[in-house]
TrEMBL record:
CDD domains: NUDIX_AcylCoAdiphos_Nudt19 (cd18870)
Record keywords: Hydrolase, Magnesium, Manganese, Metal-binding
InterPro entries: NUDIX_hydrolase-like_dom_sf, NUDIX_hydrolase_dom, NUDT19
MF-aspect GO terms: hydrolase activity, acting on acid anhydrides, in phosphorus-containing anhydrides; metal ion binding
Annotated protein name in UniProt: NUDIX hydrolase
Organism: Luteipulveratus mongoliensis
Cofactor list: Mn(2+); Mg(2+)
Amino acid sequence: MAGLEGRTTAPPEPRLASTVMLVRDGSDCPVEVFMLRRVPTMEFAPSMWVFPGGGVDARDATPDLPWAGPSPSAWAERLGTDEVVAQELVIAAVREVFEECGVLLAGPDASTVVGDVSGEQWQAERAALLSKEQSFAELLVRRSLVLRSDLLTLRDHWLTPEFEPKRYDTYFFAALMPDGQVADDATTEADIAVWVTPKVLLAQVDSGKARMFPPTIVNVEHVADATSAAAYVATRAAVVRVMPEAVRNEAGEVVLRAHLADAQG
């Protein structure tokens, strides 16, 4: 294990990934966040509570995708990467949240967001994305829509520890739940997909009734501290990439310690 016994082989290369914290004002708490509990048969993160998201797909590399909001160059500066990767990460974020919970961060123009996308035709669009029969760019062009990159805010950046067999370089985005849309539980990757009260879910993790990875816990804690959904999404702070590493504490127990890899503006 890296950080303890060392490793004899190079750590696996991390896959770029995007995840989105959809938030809305809550009835019993200031802010609710939409989360999924992955089915127990999943190879990666079985039974874990996660935000909608996933790895960058080859078809996310679409430079001519209809786009509104901060440009790929502006996102590159914010994400600490180049324009090509920045665009792929933003596209992956918007694509994944549509595939997994039916929320589409796009509109006819730069100032509007599409309304209800829960009908059968939209379900067919999601299925075609999941089966890779179409790219997200093709969907937008056919529907005369533009991706609204301004609806996303970068919140966090985590790198899977080097000792893990499957690694992700994950960017955490936040977005307000669009008016007129409904986040659903149609994904086959989760057995539960619901709006959660952050402090309730955190208490379930503490009691052992629920499971989350450390990056998810940290970000749910941030949502729990927010005063409103709009304030949470509007907050922009310096983001530092974090990579946990396994170490032994004074009692000899193996624990994860956060290592700050680098900072982004």
